[in-house]
């Protein structure tokens, strides 16, 4: 149970495997506080996407626990949208699921359109969008419901530079409002934007320090 | 309830915006029935069902039209549910994350499948009436409709088992054509009257259609329970596969 | 490498080995053994077992379906990748020759399965007609696969169109099993007609004849479809397909 008011998410000793005796996560610990942007990197296949899926409840950890009282928004690495629906219709499908009425969804949608600058695609079918615009919609959907925590899995693949800047503006704005973000990213420039930069090595989250070039396991 | 209707409306949109599927729904059954009717010679056939000779003897064209109506219908039904299943399998986790429950998603899916199957069955029934004199329209319609439901469930099961669309389509075509156009075809199947044939998915629904058209001892509604039992078994198989795939 | 890439796809393995065996075996296992009579293009009236007729036409159907799918998949798959291979130094003639060799090997393998399997099951002792007919049907249906890929390169829709078209052509229209439609004069314009006539003529007639003209008709058909395919590609009527 989370007692600390500033603590939004607590991960305790989470282990996970797809096949027995082949643990992908061997004991992940993390505490996410308000106003934090945590960057996670790691080799391909190290389990970053798996960890994020566990955090949002798409996978169940084999052992360990995840505690949160906050609303979570998630943008998956693969674009998960209805190809034959328009951008607006996709917003309505996911917004309606969360219990919002038409008007509330529209208000949120136009706000997100403005921020990410894709209002002109409102009535375009997803299958007719470019890869970068699809990614923007994929990310935009995760903002529905004004989540307290945003969990983003390589969210800006294929985005143009202006969208990339807009994306970071949204993150900083959210942080100002006391929200937090966990983001998987391999872009070196991003490191300066993170409050904490963590690496998933051998199934554990580790914090690497430049001074002694060593990594230390994150412990709560 | 409103969430279910809203979601099924969105599923329907994803279907009718795919031009190929729309063409498939309207063209394939009509084409199969038409070619099936044209290929049948103009003569009567000795047709034995439930151990008795059907009297008056049906014409080959009638049998051919019934079987190809079913073939067209089950092909379209299984392809559509396979297509929907393949698309939804990847989206279900995200829908759940946005507070849709599993029963809501399943109900919306079922609603779409039932609506589409009703539409295709209606179309096939009306078109096949060009060659058929049906004694009992309800029995004929229900026989066709239930077979479409059975094969929709097949399509759904296959969507869970295969990785690629092409492989899924091959399996669907092989199963559907083998069952409805070949095995159940009294015009050239030597397996038609064998006992184990009642294990084939289209067996009882074809019997229903035959009973509704030809003058037979038993009524078509005697077979409904078997079709529904078969459907329940297929749904159970689907749920088991779903459970193991998830874990 | 092209060969390996194909062999590692389950759908390719399925359509080149399992599908022909399933089709031929199913026709043998299902069809009742009763006599049937049909007329050949040469005018001869043939009396044969329905079982034997269905097996040999089943073999032709299996080859038609497999060839159409291969022709289609290879055209779709290599449309983009051949541009990349060209960039890294392969010439178009090298790429096309490799694709042709692979296609030829796979179809040779599939046709030997179809011919030998159907030969085992039928009482017809003709091999010559069967081999020639399977080769001709392969050529024709590869070109049809190529044509469909050039018009509508969507894997789902394209393979479905081809599977259904090949089934209807070879099992229902040009096949004496579909008695009434087979007797129509216009069926000779269907792609499977001449190869089917060869297999029926040589399999069931005591005095087979007319092979040369039937081969020529089949090849003309093949050339017309290939020309159409090139024409379609050149004028660029390919429909937009999102991959």
Explain what the structure shows.
- The complex is a heterotrimer of chains A (220), B (247) and C (243).
- Chain A is α/β, with parallel strands linked by helices and 220 residues long.
- Chain A has two domains: 1-70 and 148-220, P-loop containing nucleotide triphosphate hydrolases (Rossmann fold, 3-Layer(aba) Sandwich), CATH 3.40.50; 80-147.
- Chain A has five helices and ten strands, in the order βββαββαααβαββββ.
- Chain A has helices at residues 48-55, 87-97, 102-116, 131-142, 161-176, and strands at residues 7-17, 23-33, 37-41, 63-68, 72-75, 149-153, 180-184, 196-201, 204-209, 214-217.
- Chain A is globular, with a radius of gyration of 18 Å.
- The mean pLDDT of chain A is 83.
- Chain B has helices at residues 2-16, 19-39, 60-97, 102-128, 137-161, 165-183, 203-213, 224-246, and strands spanning 48-49, 52-53.
- The two termini of chain B are 29 Å apart.
- The model of chain B has no long low-confidence stretch (mean pLDDT 87).
- Chain B has eight helices and two strands.
- In chain B, β1 (48-49) and β2 (52-53) form a beta hairpin.
- In chain B, α3 (60-97) runs antiparallel to α4 (102-128).
- Chain B is 72% helix and 2% strand.
- Chain B has one domain.
- Chain C is mainly alpha-helical.
- Chain C has nine helices and two strands, in the order ααββααααααα.
- In chain C, strands 1-2 form a two-stranded antiparallel sheet.
- In chain C, a hairpin with a 5-residue loop joins β1 and β2 (45-49).
- In chain C, α3 (50-87) crosses α8 (193-204) and α5 (128-151) packs parallel to α9.
- The longest helix of chain C is centred in the N-terminal third of the chain and has 38 residues, at 50-87.
- The chains are: A alpha/beta (220), B mainly alpha (247), C mainly alpha (243).
- Chain B binds chain C through residues 20, 24, 28, 31-32, 35-36, 38-42, 75, 79, 83, 162-167, 169-170, 173-174, 177-178, 182-183, 185, 188-191, and chain C through 9-11, 14-15, 19, 22, 26-27, 29-33, 50, 54, 69, 73, 154-157, 159-160, 163-164, 167-168, 172-173, 177-182, 184.
């Amino acid at each position: 149970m989370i007692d600390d008011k500033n603590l939004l998410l607590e991960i305790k000793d989470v282990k996970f495997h797809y096949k027995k005796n082949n643990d992908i996560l061997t004991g992940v610990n993390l505490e996410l506080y308000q106003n934090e942007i945590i960057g996670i990197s790691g080799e391909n296949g190290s389990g970053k996407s798996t960890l994020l899926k566990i955090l949002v409840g798409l996978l169940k950890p084999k052992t360990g626990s995840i505690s949160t009282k906050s609303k979570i928004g998630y943008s998956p690495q693969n674009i998960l949208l209805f190809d034959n629906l328009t951008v607006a219709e996709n917003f309505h499908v996911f917004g309606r699921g969360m219990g919002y009425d038409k008007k509330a969804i529209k208000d949120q949608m136009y706000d997100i359109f403005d921020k990410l600058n894709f209002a002109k695609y409102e009535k375009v079918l997803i299958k007719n969008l470019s890869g970068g615009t699809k990614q923007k919609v994929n990310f935009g959907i995760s903002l529905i419901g004004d989540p307290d925590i945003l969990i983003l899995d390589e969210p800006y693949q294929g985005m143009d530079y202006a969208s990339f800047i807009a994306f970071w503006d949204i993150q900083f704005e959210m942080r100002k409002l006391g929200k937090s973000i966990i983001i998987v990213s391999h872009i070196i420039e991003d490191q300066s934007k993170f409050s904490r930069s963590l690496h998933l090595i051998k199934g554990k989250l580790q914090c690497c320090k430049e001074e002694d070039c060593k990594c230390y396991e994150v412990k709560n | 309830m409103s969430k279910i209707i809203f979601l099924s409306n969105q599923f329907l949109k994803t279907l009718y915006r795919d031009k190929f599927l729309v063409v498939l729904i309207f063209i394939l059954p009509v084409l199969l029935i038409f070619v099936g009717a044209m290929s049948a010679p103009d003569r009567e056939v000795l047709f034995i069902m439930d151990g008795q000779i059907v009297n008056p003897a049906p014409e080959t064209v009638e049998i051919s039209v019934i079987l190809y109506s079913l073939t067209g219908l089950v092909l379209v039904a299984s392809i559509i549910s396979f297509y929907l299943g393949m698309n939804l399998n990847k989206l279900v986790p995200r829908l759940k994350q946005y507070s849709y429950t599993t029963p809501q998603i399943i109900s919306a899916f079922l609603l779409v499948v039932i609506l589409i199957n009703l539409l295709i069955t209606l179309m096939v029934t009306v078109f096949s009436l060009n060659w058929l004199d049906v004694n009992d329209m309800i029995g004929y319609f229900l026989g066709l409709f239930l077979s479409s439901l059975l094969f929709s469930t097949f399509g759904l099961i296959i969507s869970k088992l295969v990785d690629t669309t092409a492989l899924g389509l091959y399996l669907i075509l092989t199963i559907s054509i083998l069952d409805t156009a070949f095995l159940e075809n009294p015009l050239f199947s030597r397996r038609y009257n064998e006992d184990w044939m009642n294990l084939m998915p289209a067996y009882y629904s074809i019997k229903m259609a035959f009973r509704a058209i030809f003058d037979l001892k038993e009524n078509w509604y005697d077979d409904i329970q078997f079709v529904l039992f078969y459907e329940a078994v297929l749904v159970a198989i689907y749920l088991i596969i779903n459970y193991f795939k998830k874990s | 490498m092209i060969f390996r890439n194909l062999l590692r796809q389950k759908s390719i393995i399925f359509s080149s080995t399992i599908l022909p065996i399933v089709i031929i075996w199913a026709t043998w296992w299902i069809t009742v053994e009763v006599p049937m009579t049909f007329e050949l293009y040469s005018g001869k009236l043939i009396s044969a077992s329905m079982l034997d007729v269905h097996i040999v036409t089943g073999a032709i159907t299996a080859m038609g379906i497999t060839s159409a799918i291969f022709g289609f998949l290879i055209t779709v798959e290599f449309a983009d990748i051949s541009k990349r291979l060209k960039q890294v130094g392969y010439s178009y003639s090298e790429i096309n020759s490799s694709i042709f060799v692979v296609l030829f090997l796979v179809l040779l393998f599939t046709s030997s399965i179809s011919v030998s399997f159907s030969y085992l099951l039928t009482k017809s002792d003709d091999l010559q007609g069967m081999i020639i007919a399977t080769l001709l049907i392969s050529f024709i249906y590869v070109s049809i696969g190529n044509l469909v890929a050039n018009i509508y390169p969507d894997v789902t829709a394209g393979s479905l169109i081809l599977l259904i078209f090949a089934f209807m052509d070879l099992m229902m229209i040009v096949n004496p099993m579909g008695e009434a439609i087979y007797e129509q004069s216009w069926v000779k314009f269907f792609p499977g007609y001449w190869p089917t006539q060869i297999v029926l003529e040589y399999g069931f007639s005591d005095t087979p004849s007319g092979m040369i003209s039937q081969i020529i008709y089949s090849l003309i058909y093949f050339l017309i479809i290939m020309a159409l395919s090139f024409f379609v590609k050149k004028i660029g009527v390919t429909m937009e397909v999102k991959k």
